[in-house]
Amino acid sequence: MASNFQVPCALVLLTFSLPIVGQETDARIQPIYGEAIDIPKVAMDEQGMFRLGERLPQPWTSLRRIVFPQRKTTPSDASWLIQLVAGGKLWSTTPPKFDGENVQFTTRYGVVEFPIEQLVGWYRRETLQDSVNASAPPAKLDEDQLVVELEGQSQSLAGLLEAVENDYFLFTFEGETREIPLARVQGIFMATAGLIQPDEGFFVTLTDNSQVFGEPIQWTNKQLTLDLAGLKQIRLPADEITRVEIRGPHLTFLSDVEPESAEVKGLLLPARSWKRDLTVDGHPLTHAPSDNSSRILTYSKGLGVPSESRITYLRSDFDRFISHVCLDPAKRGAGDCVVEVLLDGKAVFQKRLTGTSPSTEIDVPLGSSERVSLAVRFGEKLELADHVNWCDARLVRVNQP
C-alpha cells in the first residue's frame, strides 16, 4: 500500500449479507441533560431526528447514550481482529483476503469488504490481541509493517502488501516480492497518512464486542446506517447493537481536550500526575452511587486527580459542568480532601470528601464565566490516599444553537 492516503470521491455501500430480522426491544436513551427515557424501539429518520414516544422528535446531537439492557454480549471466538481507520474494530472468522484494492473478511453478521485505505491493520487473536488492545496502533507509517513469526520470535518487515491469497501474503520488501506463508503471519499495520476519525457521530458496540464509529445516516427497526469518515457507509443489524455512545457538538469530555493550565503540588511525597480516563494509579475510574447500594460503577471517561491540584479549562460556549466526584474506592476508605469547582477563580462548589463519603453529582451552570477549574486541596490527613475520581467530567451545551 502506498503511503499517500487518498480519500475516494464516491461512497461505497457496505451491507452485511446475512438477513436481518428486526425486533422491538426495550431501549434506554440518555439525553445530554435530564432524565433517561425508556422506549420500546429506536428509530431515527434521514433528518437525524429520533422519535421518543409522545415527546417531540429530538436531534441525535441532543442525546448522549443509547443502551439495550436486555441484550446479552457473547464475545466472539473469531481468530482475527480488524481495526478500521474511522475508528472501531471488527472480529473476523476468516483470514482477510486482499486483491490489491479491497480487503474482504467474514464477521458474525456476514461477509464485508473495505477499500484498503479504510483499514489500520489486522491481527491474530492469540498473538497480537493484548498489545493491540493495550495501546493505539501507529498513527503514521511510511511503509506497511508485516509482523511474522521467525524461529519462535516476532519480526517486523517494512514494505508493501501486494495481495493476500488463501494461504500466503504477497509482500515486497528489501527490493524483492515474496510469498509469506499465512501460518507465519501474526498481523499487519498498514501505511497511512494518519488516522481519520469523525469528530461527531455514534460509537456503536455490537453483541460480539465489535465496535464501529461513524456519522449516523438512518436507524430503522432493521438496521443502523453509518457514514465512516466520508469513505464508506456501513449498515449494522439493529438487533445486534448493545450500546451507542454519542459524540456531538453539545457535549465534550474534559479528558478529550487540553486544559489551559494544570498544576499539581506534592507535600510529603513527590507530586503524582493527573490522568485522563484513569485513576491516579492508572486503573479504571469508578464510584459508588449515593443510593446506599453496594454497587461500584465504572466509567470510561473522566479524570483521576491527586490532592493539591488545580486543572483549568476554557468553557467555550458550553452552559454547564457536570460530573460525579468521589475519592477512589480502591483506596478502601482512606483519604481526606476538599474538592472545588471554580469559575474564573471563584469557588461555586466545595465539598469535603473522606473515605466514607458517597459519590456526589455536580451540576454547575457556567453563566458568563470564561474558565472552569477543578481543584483538590489537602485535608486533615494531608495528601495520603487523596486520589479523586472526576467520573464523566464534561461540559454540556443545554441550549440548542
How would you summarize the topology of this molecule?
Blueprint: E1 12-15, E2 27-31, E3 37-39, E4 49-50, E5 58-59, E6 63-67, E7 80-84, E8 88-92, E9 97-98, E10 102-107, E11 110-115, E12 119-124, H1 125-134, E13 144-150, E14 153-164, E15 168-173, E16 176-181, E17 185-189, E18 201-206, E19 211-219, E20 223-228, E21 232-237, E22 241-247, E23 251-253, E24 261-264, E25 275-276, E26 285-287, E27 297-299, E28 302-306, E29 309-314, E30 320-327, E31 336-343, E32 346-354, E33 360-365, E34 371-378, E35 387-396
Parallel strand pairs: 1-21
Antiparallel strand pairs: 2-3, 2-6, 4-5, 6-22, 7-8, 7-12, 8-19, 9-10, 10-11, 12-17, 13-14, 13-17, 14-15, 15-16, 18-19, 18-22, 19-20, 20-21, 23-35, 24-29, 25-28, 26-27, 28-35, 29-34, 30-33, 30-35, 31-32, 31-34
- Detail the poorly predicted runs: 1-24, 129-139
**Number of H/I helices:** 1
First-last Cα distance? 43 Å
How many structural domains does the protein architecture include?
Answer: 2
Silhouette: globular
Major β-sheet annotation: 17 strands, mixed
Given the helix and strand composition, which structural class is it? mainly beta
Tell me the β content: over 45%
* Mean of all residue-level pLDDT scores: 82
Number of strands: 35
Radius of gyration: 24 Å
Helical residue percent? Answer: under 10%
